[in-house]
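About this split. The held-out portion is used to measure sequence recovery: a designer receives only the structure tokens and must propose an amino acid at every position. Recovery is the fraction of positions where the proposal matches the reference. Here is one held-out target exactly as it appears in the evaluation file.
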């Protein structure tokens, strides 16, 4: 049985007026789950307060980044004025900026409970989120790379909960950043400046990235015990079934509803991808809480779906 449809309603993606919508709850939950994956991969337990404070701090940082994206949204233009000629004219004291700046400070402060290293990674994550919101979001290519780097840094934020966590799992930065970047290619495949083959190229890289996760268990060791790829296999299988068919269809038939559904499920798939990486490092049982968050993310995406950039309906 296929998963239920999850697509962007006709009015989604337009200007949002309430702060909760601008804060993008699905993004905040996804970021918290990503940070949780890093913490669990570093050996932290769910019974540790620092684990949850770090995840909450991560959610605050990405919610603030989303608020700033609305703060820097181009001002409405007359019908004759093209998007390319609009200028960003945000108010310095907009409600979004007034909410975002304290959230950044609160997120960094919460992250400091994991130590000075965690605080440093939180600052870098916040800088990347602000860079994306204020500059690179409107530049095709640069935007997906910045967001990929921010999500990879967020995983390192979770890993920093223990002294050896970053050294043990720092290489996970690359697959996470690449997954987010190629998922972003699909999301912005019809953005101005995107090459015609963007969706296809993104699909190829997405397939290669997910395939690499099959072998993560063979490459990683934790406390001298080998965890084989069977630990990651259930999560990888779910990832392939959930994401790949929709991505293929979106590339072959890039209508708005189809691309939108692929984008939503690709976003959910990020948590499954990180659950697979965590399972390869520390076993399947410790990755289950990350995968379980997919259900909550699905519910939030039904209320606040991710916007997409497509040229035709």
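Reference sequence for scoring:
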């Amino acid at each position: 049985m296929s998963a239920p449809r999850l697509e962007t309603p006709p009015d989604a993606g337009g200007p949002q007026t309430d702060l909760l919508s601008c804060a993008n709850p699905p993004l905040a939950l996804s970021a918290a789950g990503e940070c949780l994956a890093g913490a669990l991969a570093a050996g932290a337990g769910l019974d540790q307060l620092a684990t949850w404070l770090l995840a909450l701090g991560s959610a605050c940082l990405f919610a603030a980044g989303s608020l700033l994206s609305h703060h820097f949204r181009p001002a409405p233009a007359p019908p004759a004025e093209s998007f390319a000629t609009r200028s960003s004219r945000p108010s310095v004291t907009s409600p979004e900026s007034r909410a975002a700046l304290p959230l950044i400070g609160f997120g960094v402060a919460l992250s400091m409970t994991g130590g000075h290293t965690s605080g440093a990674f939180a600052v870098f994550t916040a800088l990347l989120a602000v860079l994306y919101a204020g500059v690179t979001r409107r530049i095709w290519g640069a935007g997906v790379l910045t967001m990929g780097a921010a999500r990879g840094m967020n995983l390192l934020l979770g890993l920093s909960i223990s002294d050896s966590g970053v050294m043990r799992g720092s290489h996970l930065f690359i697959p996470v950043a690449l997954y987010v970047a190629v998922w972003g290619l699909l999301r912005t495949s019809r953005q101005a400046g995107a090459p015609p083959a963007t969706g296809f190229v993104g699909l190829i890289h997405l397939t290669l990235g997910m395939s690499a996760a099959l072998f993560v268990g063979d490459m990683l060791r934790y406390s001298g015990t080998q965890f084989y790829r069977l630990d990651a296999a259930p999560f990888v299988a779910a990832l392939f079934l959930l994401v790949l068919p929709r991505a293929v269809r979106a590339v072959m038939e890039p209508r708005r509803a189809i691309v939108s559904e692929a984008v939503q499920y690709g976003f959910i798939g990020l948590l499954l991808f990180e659950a697979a990486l965590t399972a390869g490092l520390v076993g399947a049982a410790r990755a289950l809480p990350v995968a379980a968050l997919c259900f909550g993310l699905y519910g939030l995406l039904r209320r606040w779906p991710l916007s997409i950039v497509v040229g035709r309906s």
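Annotator remark: The beta strands are 221-222, 225-226.
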